[in-house]
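Tokens help. Consider this.
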Amino acid sequence: METNNKLEIFYCKKCRWLLRSSWIAQEILTTFDEELSEVSLRPATGGIFEIRVNNQIIWSLQDKGRFPDIKEIKKLVRDEIAPEKSLGHTDR
């Protein structure tokens, strides 16, 4: 299945959010291995933690005031790139 869907996680390197970002990337790659062509970690500064799918922001720490639950992220990614995909127990 050929796809051009791209997920980017922008994280503050000064805040030490690399581990959190890489764990989320791993979870997303495991769930959407057929639907994504790329997952990238983008180090930044200024307290940023932002997840984008195809250049659309689906999660922003600044806007939400908290980090996402992995179930929330999986649902948001699914809604953007594979609305018909079942997430099993995550959908409950």
Remarks:
- The two ends are 27 Å apart (CA to CA).
- The beta strands are 6-12, 38-44, 49-53, 56-60.
- The chain has one domain: 6-91.
- The domain at 6-91 is CATH 3.40.30.10 (Glutaredoxin).
